[in-house]
Write a structure and sequence with these properties.
alpha/beta, Rossmann fold, about 40% helix, ATPase-coupled transmembrane transporter activity, ECF_ABC_transporter_ATP-bd, ATP hydrolysis activity, nucleotide-binding
Length: about 200
């Protein structure tokens, strides 16, 4: 499978292999056979290069929130970048403003609502200015309002490609292409409308 589009949805039933695929692309699990290239990088052999260019966002933001305050957590994402303190602070401040988190900058990062935590996880990902964002069910545990806010940020932020693992077919339909997984392998690749139709037919069987 080879895709050269800006946004790709990955859909399929629970246990079909979607999340494993996302983790494989993000270099979080190693392949057992075949070959994988992400932005021209082999995730197994060039892990450091992949981490520099790719950001991964999970469905549970608690798995990604580390530092005690909101601003510190976003700044932590820049720890490996060689930035002057003033530049780092400017990037953190701009990212917080873009994601509507400025007023929460000094708030405990673990006392936020679910929607705020997911926005914080996204903010930490985007402050790095990655070339590719891999988002694994980023709206799964959010109410409709917060799910819409998170989705809008994923699609409206510029300068990156997006791989979106989701059960939300309306969200998948916003992508440029879609991949359907079943029984641990992809069974269909193409425009979202046709792949979603195939998935819905599969669910009716």
């Amino acid at each position: 499978m080879e895709l050269d589009v800006r946004t790709v949805a990955v859909i399929g039933e629970n246990g079909s292999g979607k999340s494993t695929f996302a983790r494989l692309l993000g270099g979080l699990v190693k392949r057992t056979s075949g070959s994988v290239s992400v932005l021209g990088v082999d995730p197994d052999r060039q892990a450091a290069e992949l981490r520099r260019r790719v950001a991964v966002v999970f469905s549970n933001p608690d798995a990604q929130i580390i530092m005690p305050t909101v601003a510190e957590d976003v700044a932590f994402s820049l720890r490996s970048e060689k930035l002057a303190r003033a530049e780092r602070d400017d990037r953190v401040e701009a990212a917080l403003a873009r994601f509507g988190l400025s007023e929460l900058a000094t708030r405990s990062s673990h006392d936020l609502s679910g929607g705020q935590k997911q926005l914080l996880a996204l903010c930490g990902a985007f402050v790095r200015r990655p070339e590719l964002v891999i988002a694994d069910e980023p709206t799964a545990y959010l109410d409709a309002r917060n799910a819409r806010r998170v989705a809008d940020h994923l699609f409206e932020e510029t300068g990156h490609r997006l791989v979106l693992v989701t059960h939300d077919l309306a969200l998948a339909a916003r992508c440029d292409a879609a991949v359907l997984f079943a029984a641990g392998r992809f069974t269909s690749v193409g425009d979202p409308a046709s792949v979603i139709a195939e998935y819905e037919a599969l669910l009716r069987c």
